[in-house]
Amino acid sequence: MLYLFNDNQTQRAEALKEVRSILISASFNLFINEHVNETTGFLETLNKGLENSKGAVMILSEEYGDKLNFENGEELSFAEYQFNQVIKRCAINPNFKLFVWYPPHLAKNLPDEQQINFINKIRNSLGKNMVFTNVSSPIEFVDDIRSSFEEQETKAYDLKETEVFLISNQLDESEAEDVADMLRDIVSTENVSIVQDSDIDYSEMCAQQIKKSKLAVVYFKTSSDWAVPFAQEIWKKVGGADTKTPILLIGDSDPDYNKEVKLRAPKVVCVIVDGILIPLEIKVQYDKAKEGLIL
Predict the structure, then answer these.
(1) pLDDT at 230
(2) What percentage of the chain carries pLDDT values higher than 90?
(3) Residue 13 has what pLDDT?
(4) What is the set of domains in the chain, with CATH numbers?
(5) Could you write out the DSSP letters of every residue in 147-169?
(6) Are 97 and 9 in contact (CB under 8 A)?
(7) What tens digit of pLDDT does each residue of 272-284 get?
(8) DSSP code of 265?
(9) What is the chain's Cα-based Rg?
């Protein structure tokens, strides 16, 4: 559930209505505080909303808004008071998210002085899981919110620590299994065969397994068209040049066109050898990886 900031300012009303509609279309459950003309019901609803939400969405404009007396005699706008409570919520729950949108069409003129101070306060308070954006469309804003929650809810796979992690395409599954069997005689090896059109997020699963491995190996015989872009994808996913686990892209020299395959990147080795020599070459590269010699 998302807590949607609300106040009594007409300037923000249309943008709020648009965002609300798009969020609902994107299957978000929303908690909206309708008590924007009196403090008691507003405070009770605010506390309940934040306790039951995973994040909050706020829209800014040039107007600060009407001030009301809140606790300790403090005069604040509804927006700033809600923001203060969200910051407290973020301190209690580090996974709580805040999304602040300042639409360009609501920022054409210089904001009033109190709003300038409030906007600066927001910018200076931004921390982990807090986003301040001025993208042009509400659709883009909601898409950023959706993407953020998808990243947070990435599945954690049940994986083992291993020395070599062998990845292949289902087209080469039989040959890859033979390679894995030979490797297991000398080093601990986990292997996976990528099945096309599967519901499994192989990119994420492989990235998680690579972090538990000494050497990642992308093997191919007939699937070079798949192997190169997949190796590039997981290399980026595990940190690119900063990855702690090197990646070996290794192909069988039969068929002959595999000899044309090349991939250059930090912590990546590309080798094409006779099929019978592939397990030996993987062991050679594993030994180099252990010594930190793959740069």
Answers:
(1) 93
(2) 52
(3) 80
(4) 2-152 (3.40.50.10140), 162-290 (3.40.50.10140)
(5) HHHHHHTPPPP----EEEEEEEE
(6) no
(7) 999 999 999 999 9
(8) B
(9) 27
